[in-house]
Amino acid sequence: MTIDININLREVEEKIRVAALKAGRDAKDIQLIAVTKTVEPEIIKKAIEYGVKHVGENKVQELLRKYEVIGDQVQWHMIGHLQKNKVKYIIDKVALIHSVDSYDLALEIDKRAKKSGLIMKCLLQVNVSGEETKYGVSREQAKDLLKEISKLHNIHIVGLMTMAPYVEEAKETRACFESLKELSLEIEKMGLHNIQMKYLSMGMSNDFEVAIEEGGTLVRIGSKIFGERNY
């Protein structure tokens, strides 16, 4: 079956619009990030022609391979787990790192950003569901970690990211998204230097509408645009 990326994109955009409307929000405040895991550069280029402006990659080597072909035609997001020794390869290529989950990683990003004369925008990844298979700091650790990161100069935390449990019923993920939103409001009240709660990266192909209803501003969507993946 042929995948029509243009039709898929329009359908996703319409669902974003409807979910935003339902929540009394403006769809313009929600950014679609097309997740291009396993998607080849020529397909990504088609998506760019149809209006995709932000692309998310899970692996550094995949991001670099595709960046060579596509370059700055889109804003790149590092959405997967990031190892300290890989930071140097992407520091000057990505607009946003979604997956800061330790002080050591934040320190390395800060160091590499300083070397490149950049302020690197990042999100703190929070494992709200507490699943052992997921990366991210616990809800309890988040505030203390941000207090430490706030002392660094070349990394700027601009929000939070989470992955909800994968369940058949999207509404079951609602509590997870509610919890992240609640945490972001608590952090905002702390008034930490260099820490902003501008973005909530939450919601994927199976649950993005619920995430939007609960305050998500960055939705990471792959299969709903590019079709089911063959891993």
UniProtKB/TrEMBL annotation:
Domain Alanine racemase N-terminal: residue ranges: 7-229
Job description of the protein: Pyridoxal 5'-phosphate (PLP)-binding protein, which is involved in PLP homeostasis.
Keyword Hydrolase attributed: no
Required cofactor(s): pyridoxal 5'-phosphate
Keywords in alphabetical order: Pyridoxal phosphate
SUPFAM superfamilies linked to this entry: PLP-binding barrel
Organism: Natronincola ferrireducens
Protein origin, superkingdom: Bacteria
This protein's name: Pyridoxal phosphate homeostasis protein
